[in-house]
Every structure is written in structure tokens, then in C-alpha cells.
Write a structure and sequence with these properties.
Elements: E1 10-13, E2 17-22, H1 38-50, E3 59-60, E4 69-75, H2 78-89, E5 94-101, E6 109-119, E7 124-128, E8 136-147, E9 152-158, H3 165-172, E10 196-204, E11 211-215, H4 222-230
Parallel strand pairs: 4-10
Antiparallel strand pairs: 1-2, 2-4, 3-4, 5-9, 5-10, 6-7, 6-8, 8-9, 10-11
């Protein structure tokens, strides 16, 4: 992400937190690629915008996989980070995702409760119907909210935050996400993105205690544009 354009991706900002609309291919924190992570890009943005001397504090509250887009929270103070981490742990931050899949789901909606193990060498999660050694419980609720000529749009409420959880659980029910080669989709998307998008975040602000709901527009492509135009109930965050 170019530093000159990061302000275009900020969905909400105050003295305590920033919610950013992450683009596909951006990384949240540094990794072995050496690419600049969003955490550093945002620190530079804050330093320049507010003329802050010295080091800038920025806390990563949660993450999105590199090929995934959408709403992402960063804390601007240590107090906000502590409170947001507690809220995340206690399930008080409501995260809603959109996923585009090629196959029609087995039901128009369902509450999936499964167990995931992780292979760190392959960077991949595996789904089990019952607990196994080293597994973690994975829960989500999905519903079918739209369809196009050959694709289906699922809305997902994530109840636990496991590694690659949505990608693995949807693949296990026969609905790999468009572009997700790692989890069984036959073709990649241009640029290596997948059609999984963190559509909205809803929480009680850690300092003001007001309800905050932020909606993130999906990346611009024909399929996302089609589904966004059909989603008449969503309104931009105030």
C-alpha cells in the first residue's frame, strides 16, 4: 500500500483507534517476505499527520490473512489495546464477513461447530468433526444472502478466531472460496487475492462506550460490485 493513499482506506479514526479497510495482498505485521506491513505504514501516517516526535504507538488488535480484504482494527493507545484485546477474547467484537463461493451451500444457513488442527509447515488448517489431539474448537454462523450467475454470496458471523477458520470450514462443507487454491478452489484470482472480505465490525467503543459499527466496501471487481449493488440494506458508517 502506498503511504500517500492509506488515508483513503481509513474507515474510522479517533485518538484511541483506527479501523482500516485492508486491501488484498497487504500484510498486517512483518513476515519473511520483508514487505512493509500495515502496522508500519500506519505508524508513518500517524507520525506525519499529527507531527508526532519519536516512536508512535500502534497496537495490532487482530489480523486478516494476506489474500483477504476488509475491516481491521488498530489501537492508538496501550489502554485501548488492552480493552480491545479483552473484548476480542470475550466475544464482544462482532465481525461479519462476506465470502463468494462457486458451489451452492448444503443449507441456506447453518451454525458450524468443528475442530481445527494446524500444520505450520504447510500453513494450513484441517477440519475435524470431533476433537482430536491439538485441535481447537471453531464456530461460525453462515447464511446465503445472494447469488449471481454461477456464484453464491455467504454472510458469516465469526464466533471464534482460529487460523484460516472461514477458509477451512467453508472448504470442508464443499464451498471453497473463489480464488483460494490452498483450500480447494481450482483457479487463482488475479493478484493472488481470494473473495473473502471482512465486511463489518461492530463494538462498544473502548473509551467513549458508544456503539460503533463500521462497514468496509469490498475491492473493486465485477463480482464484488454485483453483490455490493444488490446489498441495499447496508449503509456507510457515520
Amino acid at each position: 500500500m502506498k503511504k500517500s493513499s492509506i488515508d483513503q482506506d481509513i474507515l474510522y479514526e479517533d485518538n484511541h483507534l483506527i479501523i482500516l479497510n485492508k486491501r488484498p495482498s497487504d500484510i498486517v505485521q512483518g513476515d519473511k517476505t520483508g514487505d512493509e506491513p500495515l502496522s508500519e505504514t500506519l505508524k508513518s501516517y500517524i507520525k506525519q499527520k499529527y507531527g508526532k516526535p519519536g516512536d508512535v504507538f500502534l497496537g495490532v488488535v487482530h489480523r486478516l490473512d494476506r489474500p483477504v480484504s476488509g475491516a481491521l482494527i488498530f489501537a492508538r493507545t496501550s489502554k485501548a489495546l488492552t480493552r480491545l484485546n479483552i473484548m476480542l477474547r470475550d466475544g464482544l467484537i462482532r465481525k461479519t464477513y462476506w465470502a463468494v463461493v462457486k458451489n451452492c451451500p448444503p443449507n441456506t444457513g447453518d451454525h458450524l461447530i468443528q475442530y481445527l488442527t494446524r500444520n505450520t509447515d504447510k500453513n494450513k488448517a484441517y477440519v475435524h468433526e470431533k476433537p482430536v489431539a491439538g485441535s481447537q474448537k471453531a464456530e461460525l454462523i453462515y447464511k446465503l444472502i445472494d447469488k449471481s450467475d454461477g456464484y453464491y454470496l455467504l454472510e458469516i458471523q465469526l464466533l471464534t478466531g482460529r487460523h484460516h477458520q472461514i477458509r477451512a470450514q467453508l472448504s470442508a462443507m464443499g464451498c471453497p472460496i473463489k480464488g483460494d487454491l490452498k483450500y480447494g478452489y481450482p483457479r487463482s484470482n488475479p493478484g493472488g487475492s481470494i473473495h473473502l472480505h471482512a465486511r463489518s465490525i461492530e463494538l462498544i467503543h473502548p473509551t467513549t462506550k458508544e456503539l460503533l459499527k463500521v462497514i468496509a466496501p469490498p475491492p473493486a471487481d465485477k463480482l464484488w460490485d454485483f453483490f455490493t449493488l444488490n446489498s441495499l440494506s447496508d449503509t456507510p458508517a457515520s
